[in-house]
User: Which sequence fits this backbone?
């Protein structure tokens, strides 16, 4: 399948803060051809990062049997972000109207529609609205009992692939709840406290080919180290494990206890996640030479969790990045007298995040939540760079910032949340460069040689010129 060209987004037309069910205006409905192109774009670009609805062939068969306009429209709306001239505003109206239409049953398909819509709205910078719709989807899922093992079999119509879809829907809801709580730092990880015995998802190729094996349980996964079974679980499962660890990080931030002890206990979960990955899951590349998006996200989540856990005790002054608020409010930290283990850990995680940007896959096919993880890494890089003398040892930070800024720019072609982060990170990088240049010219660093000064300024000026071109 060819990559569908991304279309220009009319942000004024996307003002979802107005009541989209209002009769004040009605936008022209997209043609059937455009709608199908949007579905194709949804499956090509968005689905690999959030694979919880039925695979495309199974979904098409189901549509021939029953009407799922609310889910279909939500998928078309997301796909429209990647398709030129696709009536984005009209589809946004249709989606919100349909997911809250009382004529549709309160079932798991509605949960899927609301979940998909919430993910998209978050990437379009409507964080509060996304959180509300996610909360409504969570309420409905709990009423339906989707957190219980028997739900899938009782509502699967004797279809193994539909049962797998229900299991994936619960776990995707769980992951998005945790992701929003982690990267935006404005809500709680509500589902972390909910009892669950839903079966774990299978591998992506098994789901796509509709060859669904018998599922394992989360208790099986938790006991894997000690039961002697030596099982390799699906990449989706390691993504679930990663977000559970992020939940532990968020819980540690609420406790009245402070200091290194509780951080060390939570850090053990993050380290163990890395240590106990099977050899087949230590690379991002699958057997068919594709990037494993589920593993990519799992590693991104783990590195972000490490930064969130250790930044309070790290000796990095975050003042320089105080205006980077596109993803989360500024979290003030101050520098200390010595470099410590916590600083080393967050720097290592920030470097790992930047390195993952270089993987051979289109950045716009990753989940948009990677935007906030890249931004989090950028804050670490900027805080580190701002405190160093402008000599050769800061080259790594500058190169990593170039990767991050370029990655945010590319993702911003589809997701406005990335564009906002791009502007803020790029702006702070330019400010730090100008301040360092001014300080050196004033010879604040008196031991800085003329030769070193000239070399560093030439290199930095080249980088800043590249930033200006972005």
Assistant:
């Amino acid at each position: 399948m060819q990559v569908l060209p991304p279309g220009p987004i009319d942000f004024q037309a996307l003002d979802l803060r107005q009541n989209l069910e209002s009769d004040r205006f009605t936008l022209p409905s997209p043609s059937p051809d455009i709608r199908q192109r949007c579905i194709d774009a949804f499956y090509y670009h968005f689905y690999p990062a959030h694979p919880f609805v039925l695979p495309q062939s199974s979904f098409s068969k189901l549509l021939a049997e029953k009407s799922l306009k609310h889910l279909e429209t939500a998928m078309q709306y997301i796909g429209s972000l990647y398709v030129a001239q696709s009536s984005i505003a009209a589809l946004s109206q249709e989606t919100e109207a349909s997911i809250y239409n009382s004529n549709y049953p309160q079932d798991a398909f509605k949960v899927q529609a609301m979940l998909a819509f919430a993910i998209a709205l978050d990437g379009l910078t409507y964080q509060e609205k996304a959180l509300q719709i996610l909360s409504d989807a969570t309420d409905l899922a709990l009423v339906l009992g989707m957190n219980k093992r028997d739900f899938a079999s009782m509502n699967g119509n004797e279809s193994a692939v539909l049962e797998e879809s229900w299991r994936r829907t619960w776990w995707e809801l769980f992951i998005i709840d945790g992701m929003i709580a982690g990267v935006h730092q404005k809500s709680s990880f509500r589902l972390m406290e909910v009892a669950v015995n839903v079966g774990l998802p299978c591998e992506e190729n098994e789901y796509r080919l509709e060859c669904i094996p018998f599922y394992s349980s989360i208790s099986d996964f938790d006991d894997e180290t000690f039961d002697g079974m030596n099982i390799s679980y699906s990449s989706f499962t390691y993504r679930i494990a990663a977000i559970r660890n992020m939940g532990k990080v968020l819980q540690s931030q609420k406790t009245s206890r402070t200091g290194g002890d509780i951080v060390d206990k939570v850090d053990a979960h993050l380290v163990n996640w890395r240590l106990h990955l099977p050899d087949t899951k230590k690379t991002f590349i699958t057997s068919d030479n594709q990037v494993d998006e589920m593993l990519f996200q799992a590693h991104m989540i783990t590195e972000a969790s490490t930064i969130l856990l250790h930044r309070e005790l790290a000796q990095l002054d975050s003042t320089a990045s105080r205006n980077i608020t596109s993803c989360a409010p500024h979290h003030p930290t101050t520098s200390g007298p010595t470099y410590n283990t916590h600083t080393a850990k967050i720097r290592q995680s920030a470097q790992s995040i930047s390195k993952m940007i270089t993987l051979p896959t289109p950045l716009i096919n990753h989940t948009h939540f990677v935007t906030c993880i890249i931004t989090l890494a950028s804050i670490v890089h900027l805080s580190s760079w701002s405190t160093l003398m402008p000599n050769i040892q800061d080259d790594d930070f500058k190169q990593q910032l170039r990767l991050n800024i370029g990655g945010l720019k590319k993702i911003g072609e589809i997701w406005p949340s990335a564009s906002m982060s791009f502007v803020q990170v790029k702006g702070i990088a330019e400010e730090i460069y100008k301040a360092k240049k001014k300080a050196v010219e004033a010879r604040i660093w008196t031991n800085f040689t003329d030769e070193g000064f000239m070399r560093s300024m030439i290199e930095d000026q080249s980088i800043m010129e590249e930033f200006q071109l972005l």
Observations:
- The chain has 18 helices and no strands.
- The CA atoms of residues 26 and 90 lie 8 Å apart.
